[in-house]
Design brief:
homodimer, 437 residues, alpha/beta, Aldehyde Dehydrogenase, Chain A, domain 2, 7-stranded parallel beta sheet, 17 strands, 21% strand
């Protein structure tokens, strides 16, 4: 058994091999990985049923057990997702900037992998598979700390990946699964070996990671998304979008938590509340909402801090606001800069909202649920970042590479370009190029 | 007098105005700012001489006083630098990705300013002018904490900027200079108001900032740059490049600190040491270097930690290494991921070095001194980042914007695209566009 530090050292070293792998080879590894997954349905189901049985006897909550449990269909979806990643464009090696500084002195800004990524995920086997394939495609070594509940399933998935790597002569240390809570604390200390941490799980996990490491963290603690229904909204559209944004996947981070309604649309509140109730949604609200919809239908929100709650279930909050300004002020105060939407037929109002709301994703006349790497056409995502700096929002392959500056000369010294008789730089843009492999 | 927090609140609010300013207006403000600077040489010299006199009587070190002191030429250079920034391409508003997700459902990834940037700089008035112009051009509000020594000069520069802003109806709170050490600690706490911190100064300052804030930090603590002289190096070229990299600006972060020499080039060591000595460079070295060049010429390095020293003056360290591997291992252990160079005529060796050395800038057969935003053709830079994530290396205007995802539909809900009868996404790329202003 290697220590977490040794694993990270080996991952860093494997990362160098990954960084120079041709696209073809990476894609072949992914194809093989996919074939092993959907060629081993029976074996996967067998080990997974052990994990599920353990989870049931440990009385874990049913939502978690659902996410842990594999089905024939889920296994095929997992394999298809890997194949889809393998078919995405190569993210490494692009020349992003190419400049002739002077004769014989050429600068290239080149897309390169981060190096080693540590991911901390809960029990979803499909999340592990997706991470493994995205990191392989982007040439990053991966250390994934998986939930204890999924031990047997994830071990088998790791074996499939290792077999695929070995068959192509790539070190297994490119992808390692670690277990146990202690591993998290150890990983977070390794800022000289690990280049990025991706925590996927509860708000508490993400905040713990953010507060306890000097490694850059990609993720979001909260998904407190808003839909603002403007005075100029098509209210039927608003109802439809809110129902979708709340009920289509209530535990998703891009589900709506708070609906802000312009006071001119007061009469529509009972319609909305009824529609929500029919979908089994619990409704909380401000005093005005309670007054209109009735105390039987809406629970009064008494504490300001309750507006910053991510329900993550079939529950929503409604607040009446006086205007666009008040809606945006609410979002600024209680939002989490994830995804916020406006429903309005007024183009100027929409423009102001899209422009001024400082969230990774802003939406006009559509559901917040679209903010997702797959839906955005990024192929797949490792998560959604609510930080201000890139990568921001849904992070796909493009967000899993950074760049370096490569300068080649033939004896150039800088003194020539300085002082009274300074030689001028040419700064001629040269053609950009995509990785030819 | 406003508190730092109030200043930051006003900056955040001003940032919204800045974000929508047309290029033309921003450029006009910068032109006016430049005109005021070189139209006020006498006034600038007068206030600056007060600062210089204070610095002299406070017995501040002469290098600092040099950087603080304005001359007629320096003032014109400052103004020209502002004009140059105004002539750079607009960094805000570009559509970086534009996709038709489905009929009527259109996604844009748009370049937007960070919002509010806090910069902590020492006494150089030209650094303050450059920051002000880059932030105006990139539509970021700026709070700059300037060195106490430059108080009068920087106050006048601020007045020029405020007059330029006012003449175009833009709030003065877009750019504010604050003073005093307490201001730094206060700024670092304001992670809900400030989006990026740029510390420019000593290693201690940068490390203090990195350790004491949750705001993203752009910068570098160390500039420990290496030149590796390979067995296949043109040794005359190597001497020329090393002399340039060390002596052209010894205190610059991209100056070389350690020269690594392949053991096959042992005989050249005395040549190099002599050349360095002739330029007034103090030489430290490993025991082999001392043995070859003599204890009179080279001081023995006894502590491993001395290889991680940034001299920042006319001093350099020399180490004999057994091969490329050993050179790269040394850089990995003692380097600061800033700028590292290889001198070799062997293309394969160069390729390995450029590929495997994990620094923001890697250089082949040229001086480390080229790693600089202006020389790279980025127009100007706010600093060099040694972090792994973008912006990495010299950060110009492109590194002062982030992006947001803007999705516009006409009532689209996500449920349609999920499940058994899922509607497929179209994901048709649409034309990209530059800001039309």
């Amino acid at each position: 058994m290697h220590s977490v530090k040794e694993i990270a050292q080996q991952a860093k070293s494997a990362g160098k091999t990954l960084a120079t792998l041709e696209s073809q080879k990476k894609n072949a590894i992914l194809q093989l990985f996919a074939d092993k997954i959907d060629g081993s349905v029976a074996e996967l189901m067998k080990v997974n049923s052990r994990d599920v049985a353990d989870a049931v006897s440990a009385a874990l909550n049913s939502a978690l057990i659902d996410r842990l449990r594999l089905t024939d269909a889920k296994i095929h979806q997992m394999a298809d997702a890997v194949r889809q990643v393998s078919s995405l464009p190569e993210p490494v090696g692009h020349v992003l900037r190419h400049t002739l500084l002077d004769d014989g002195l050429i600068l290239r800004q080149i897309a390169v992998p981060y190096g080693t990524v540590a991911a901390i995920v809960e029990s979803r086997p499909d999340a592990v598979v997706q991470l493994m394939s995205l990191m392989m495609k982007s040439s990053n070594a991966l250390i994934v700390k998986a939930g204890q509940e999924a031990t047997h399933t994830v071990k088998l998935i790791q074996r499939f990946m290792h077999e695929s790597l070995l068959q192509h002569g790539v070190p297994c240390s490119s992808v390692t699964v670690v277990h146990g809570r202690e591993a998290v604390a150890e990983l977070l200390k390794l800022d000289s070996l690990i280049d990025l941490v991706i925590p996927r799980g509860s708000k508490e996990l993400v905040q713990y990671v953010q507060r306890n490491t000097r490694i850059p963290v990609l993720g979001h603690a909260d998904g407190i998304c808003h839909v603002y229904v403007d005075t100029d909204a098509d209210l039927q559209m608003a109802t439809r979008i809110i129902i979708d944004a709340k009920t289509q996947a209530p535990s998703a981070c891009n589900a709506v938590e708070t609906v802000l309604v312009h006071r001119n649309a007061l009469e529509w509140i009972p319609v909305l509340v009824t529609a929500l109730k029919q979908c089994g949604v619990r409704v909380n609200g401000c005093s005005q909402t309670v007054a209109i919809a009735g105390v039987d239908c809406v629970t009064l929100i008494t504490e300001d801090s309750d507006w910053a709650v991510e329900y993550g279930e079939l529950a929503v909050a409604i607040k009446i606001v006086s205007d666009l300004e008040a809606a945006m002020a609410h979002i600024r105060t209680f939002g989490s800069r994830h995804t916020d939407a406006i429903i309005t037929a007024n183009a100027a109002t929409a423009e102001r909202f899209l422009h001024e709301v400082d969230s990774a994703n802003v939406v006009h006349n559509a559901s917040t649920r679209f903010s997702d790497g797959y839906r955005y056409g990024l192929g797949a995502e490792v998560g959604i970042s609510t930080g201000k700096l890139p990568p921001r929002g849904p992070v796909g392959l493009d967000g899993l590479v950074t760049y370096k500056w490569v300068l080649c000369g033939n004896g150039h010294v800088s003194a020539q370009y300085q002082g009274v008789d300074a030689k001028p730089f040419k700064h001629v843009p040269l053609p950009l190029s995509s990785p030819a492999r």
